[in-house]
Write a structure and sequence with these properties.
Elements lengths: L8 E6 L2 E6 L8 E5 L3 E7 L4 E4 L7 E8 L8 E5 L2 E10 L12 E9 L4 E4 L3 E4 L2
Antiparallel strand pairs: 1-2, 2-6, 3-4, 3-11, 4-5, 5-6, 6-8, 7-8, 8-9, 9-10, 10-11
Length: 131
């Protein structure tokens, strides 16, 4: 399984909690997630730990992305079955969001893998179909 190296593991404070995270993201979550699988608003997750988050009715906001890992760099997953599990991402909003998404603010975002259905979900509504 995919693992970040210990040097890639950092801690970030968010809402009184300390998260152990890595910018080394699993390949299976990389890509663009489209609203109901059809288009905007979307979420883009890049391999380099950057991406875009588009709120409803707004332009996309650049984001920095980390994945929740243990002290050894192993991603924490909430597992239902081997075909269904969820990763937690910590994202930081860049310039251009304002309102609920001011630059510098951190937020949590889940990526749910539904391999038996051939798709992955972000925010329960942004879909990326697996190859």
């Amino acid at each position: 399984p995919w693992v970040a190296t210990a040097a890639d593991v950092h801690t970030i404070e968010h809402m009184g909690d300390t998260y152990t995270v890595s910018k080394t993201l699993p390949d299976e979550i990389i890509g663009t997630y489209e609203y109901e699988g059809k288009g905007e608003p979307s979420v883009q997750i890049n391999a380099d730990g950057t991406g875009l988050f588009q709120p409803h009715g707004m332009p996309a906001i650049p984001i920095k992305i980390w994945i929740d890992v243990d002290d050894n760099g192993v991603p924490r997953r909430q597992v239902g079955t081997e075909q269904r599990y969820r990763y937690t991402l910590l994202v930081q909003y860049g310039e251009g969001g304002g309102g609920n998404y001011p630059a510098g603010k951190y937020d949590l975002m889940g990526v749910t893998m539904l391999k038996d259905e051939g798709k992955a979900l972000v925010l329960g509504e942004r879909i990326r179909y697996l190859k």
